[in-house]
Amino acid sequence: MSLWVDKHRPRDLMKLDFHKDQAARLKSLVQQSDFPHLLIYGPSGAGKKTRIMCLLRELYGSGVERLRQETMNFTTPSNKKIEIMTVSSNYHIEVNPTDVGIHDRVVIMDLVKNVAQTHQIDSSGQREFKVVILNEVDDLTKDAQHALRRTMEKYVATCRLILIANSISRVIPAIRSRCLTIRVPAPTENEIASILHLVCKKEGLSLPSELAMRIAKCSDRNLRRALLMCEACKVQQYPFTADQKVPEPDWQQFIRETASMILSEQSPKKLGEVRQKLYELIIHGVPPDMVFAGLLKELVRNCDMAMKCQVASHAAMYEHRMRLGNKPIFHLEAFVAKFMAIYKKFMEESLGDAF
Amino acid sequence: MSDFPDPDEEYELMYADDLELLQEEDDHIEANVVKKKPIQAKRSLDFSSPAPKHLSESRVTDNTPSSSNTNVAPINNTQISFSQSLQPVEELLTPATSNKRTAEDLFGDIGDIDFDNVEMPTKKQKTEEENDLDLINKILESRRLRQLLLEPSRAQAEAKPLFDTKDNISLNIPRWPFMPLTNSDGDRVYVRLESETSWEQSLDAAAEQPSLQSMYAKTWEEARKILEKKQEEEMLRQSQEALPNIASDINGNSLWVEKYRPHSYLDLLSEEPVNRALLHWLHLWDKIVFKKEVKTTEPQQRNSFSKRTGQFQLTNKWKGKKEFGPEMDEDGRPHHKVALLCGPPGVGKTTLAHLLARIAGYRPVELNASDERSTDAFRNALQSATLMRSVIDAEKRPNCLILDEIDGAPLPTVELLVKWCTATGTEGKKKAKTQPLKRPVIAICNDLYATSLRPLRPVALIIHVGGVSLQRLSSRLARVCECEGLTVMPHVLAALAARVQGDVRSAIHVLSFIKARAKAQLNMEDVENTSVGTKDCSKSMMQALTAIFTTNDKDENAIMKTVQAAGEYDRLVDGIFENYLQARVDSRLLIACETLSWLRLHDTIHAWTMRTQNYSLYGMLPQCVVRCHRLLASRNPQRVKFPMQAQEAYRKKTELDSIVWSVWRYSAPSVALARRALQLDVIPLLPYLLAPTASVQLYRESERKALRTCAEAMCDYALQYTQQRTPEGLYAFVLEPDIYKVAFFENQERMRPPPPVRQAIAREQQLEMIKRSEEMANRVSNPNKPDTRSKATDSKEGTVGKEGSAKEAKETRLPNHLQRLKPKEVEKTTPQVHKDFFGRIVPLSQMQRSDAVPDVISSSSVFYQYREGFNNAVRRNVRTRDML
């Protein structure tokens, strides 16, 4: 709890810094002492989890903040033992089913059943239900999602599910319709900057507003990243100067380098070098879809409008195929090769016109 | 043929490049010579088949009589043979004895040319000189045809263009655009002029034409059948005469494999150096077995011998003569006590071992997989075979143990054998039981690198027995057929030999099977269609990969079979992915895009198949690979690398994942995050946060705070500086788990704090950990009693929602976990752990008595840190005075 991002996390719905009207609505929702299943989605670092924790606190009191970590064991139908870590309080349990890969269906079925079948021991003055928080629902396999839809209805009396996702496009409609979907948009850059100011004030530091804006810009509208970057700035150099270097995650920089490599030369040899870079990104756990997005963002800067559309549509297609397949490197490299081909043709044509 | 400027030579000179390629195929096509003959004979009268390349030159530089190039010959010829080229051959055949003589004068021996098939000039109005020229051309032409018959592949290459002379050259002024050409005699020929584009088109069309073989496949088939029928009849006639003589042989019931087992050294089919190596080794035993001096062959002789064979397969010896000495050890036994024959099944390893053992004067004793091979049974066999000799055997020969199929033997057995072999005489005296091995032991295996053979390999003389060469195998098969009265065409035998891939046994089995079906002869169909004798044609992944990147001119569809035989499509695709950039890739990357699209399709199908466990599309996977072959194959051989990148990447990824996992798993619940967020947002920035700028000795308040924050963060994320011994013998603080690896891509040494800072952090963190564990202990032991420790955390945690909950706690008797503690002034009673000098916790009562020092560790100038086996923890010079 020492990093700013944890230390200054709001704990009350009313103290949230942005999307205040949404917070008010959430508060009124829980005041009725019952609420439907929730599906909360939004980009990373927008404050989904913070809102959920505030909501739970509103619902159960501060007891939800006494967290403990536990590992739970499940056995798959194929007799494979799987282990999953949960974070829980007396009132809720949080789990990330995608940690067990393709066996997530078992986790969902067993876990929800376990939780739902045990009633609260002391129900006086308590809610009738417990809350199960499922992370990264959009990465669940289709099987698990289908298993979820029945479970949701069956145990609605004793447990509520709060699903967290980045995007609902990969959540099956059946689940979407069973939940109250709440979108948490990413904070704007101005909001991030003002939060940074607020935090620095709490820490007793003075933050130049230019630096705050720069950090906000670098952070991709990801508040968590912004706060971490701000603290990293502080560790590196204090007092702040407006033009100091803002440390940013290395992988972002790496994607930018890769993109500039692609633009510098289009040849099979270069493609081979780019492949090494792509491997490196995958090794470091950067999700391939983010690599796609990052590369595209950098690459289209050097394209004219027609080509932009073409490249973007190719990227979308290749990314889609990648999700169907197993080996992201093939699809990433295919996209790079395709872009190189398009770009080279474009360059040659424009050079040809020049003469 | 030598006295005439040989058209073949000229031809070869001109098309050396093409020939080189074709030459490679000749070996394989040789077998089919016979079946291609008829079609060539048919074409021999058609003058309309110059190659497209030659066409262009012949159009412009026509009419050069001096060039005796066969390809131009038809055009020179055109004036006279246009009209007749369409007429049936029979009508044109005229006896031309007078011409023959002149021809003989001119060309010397032309007996090789079949004049019956060559049409003779019939037009009387031609001058004598023209007739001669004509004849020359005829002879050249027929020679060429003969050449084509001998080397049909060349004919194939030539036969592609479909340039019709009649349509393009005319004697009269034609209606199409033309170019007049006049030869030395004043004859005018009109050659058609074509536009550039149409010429291109015709070239393209020619290129797209399927090969002659496929075009005329049907005709060829018929022709082949006719020819075979003819030959069959002929053979039948011959065999009917021969049959009675060997009738007695047929009655024999024994397997042919037994019947035709080699009975003398000369009968052996295996390679000469292999035979010699084994025999030589057996003779090395002569000294100890037969008590006679070993004849050592002269170095020169052996030297030349190994030079001749070129590829000497012995790895252990005979590479240099220096090693000759240790061929024998001090007991007079060979250096290698065991000979290990290895090779594919059916090439005659067992036969070789038995025969050579007999030749060398031993009685072979075989022990194979069908016998029991437990350690005890094996020891018995070994003892009886090597220490005793047969009493019943009249010749009283010594035994030679042959251990067949040793790669299937259990490891202890092989170890026993090795022990037995390596036991020397001196050792034998000590232990009465183990006597030195005094008889040769030959072990036979298929797989040299079987795990159970590992101990045997270093002590054994390893002899590789390769497959039998095609020629020798087919000639041997011919002999067998002859003996059995089976009429088989030589080319059929060659095909059979090629099919079994050097496996003599299966080839002979096929023959006996055919014979058993009461057929007196074996046709090409039998060999091609029957599934008998097809060996398990598994290909290794690398073979398939190499095949994918090389063009196969012989058989376009062979690649499919190869790929399917190799299986492992997933690895194969990885291999293509890693190698395709070195293959035929254009600078515009179009081939790369196309290849990748097939790879992607493969990936998608594969993933789908695996996910749904629905194998209906599995058959498509090799198709994708074959498409890649079509795109990437080239003639120049390419070094194909084994696909490693994917594995390597996977390995590294799991390594980094485990780092992330351990951070995630052990981080405090209050900071728990989704793993992805941890990996992408927190860990990349943590190194910046964990590098406080602090001077070691003099902390300012802010620096101390920074250190504290850093230590707390490390506790939260379960990071720790541990002391590790560096190779130089120094101790360094290393972050565990090493998040720098995850956070940074290239320079992973960036942002690491200097050692003194690390040490300071480590110390601070230890305090923090002690503090936290104390809190935990207190919380567990007396949860109801309000104590200062947990309050400290509460005050940190609950900065926001303190007030409300405190009120709640008063109102009702809430469950424990809901109880909030009242905030109290924390600063005075900062978390303390009271420990004495040795790290023992001072009891509370004692501690309260000595209130003067509230926090022993942090305020004391002495800080002792215990490390096992290493003691430099006392950091300051302390005088005794200070301690008192």
TrEMBL record, chain A:
Subunit of the replication factor C (RFC) complex which acts during elongation of primed DNA templates by DNA polymerases delta and epsilon, and is necessary for ATP-dependent loading of proliferating cell nuclear antigen (PCNA) onto primed DNA. Residues 34-190 form the AAA+ ATPase domain. The keyword Nucleus applies. The keyword Nucleotidyltransferase does not apply. Its main location: nucleus. Subunit of the RFC complex, an heteropentameric complex consisting of a large subunit RFC1 and four small subunits RFC2, RFC3, RFC4 and RFC5; the RFC complex interacts with PCNA. Forms an heterotetrameric complex with RFC2, RFC4 and RFC5; this complex has ATPase activity but is not stimulated by PCNA. The heterotetramer of subunits RFC2, RFC3, RFC4 and RFC5 interacts with RAD17. Interacts with CNTD1; this interaction facilitates crossover formation. This is Replication factor C subunit 3. Pfam families: DNA_pol3_delta2 (PF13177), RCF1-5-like_lid (PF21960), RFC_C (PF22534). Belongs to the activator 1 small subunits family. Keywords: DNA replication, Nucleus. GO terms for cellular component: chromosome; nucleus; protein-containing complex. It is found in: Nucleus. The lineage of its organism: Eukaryota, Metazoa, Ecdysozoa, Arthropoda, Hexapoda. GO terms for molecular function: ATP-dependent activity, acting on DNA. One of its GO terms (biological process) is DNA strand elongation involved in DNA replication.
UniProtKB/TrEMBL annotation, chain B:
Residues 40-75, 774-817 are annotated as: Disordered. Residues 786-814 have a biased composition (Basic and acidic residues). This is AAA+ ATPase domain-containing protein. Gene3D superfamilies: 1.10.8.60, P-loop containing nucleotide triphosphate hydrolases. Residues 61-75 have a biased composition (Polar residues). CDD domains: AAA, HLD_clamp_RFC. It is found in: Nucleus. Keywords: ATP-binding, Cell cycle, DNA replication, DNA-binding, Nucleotide-binding, Nucleus. InterPro entries: AAA+_ATPase (IPR003593), ATPase_AAA_core (IPR003959), CTF18-RFC_complex (IPR053016), P-loop_NTPase (IPR027417), RFC_lid (IPR047854). Belongs to the activator 1 small subunits family. CTF18 subfamily. It comes from Loxostege sticticalis (Beet webworm moth). Residues 335-469 form the AAA+ ATPase domain.
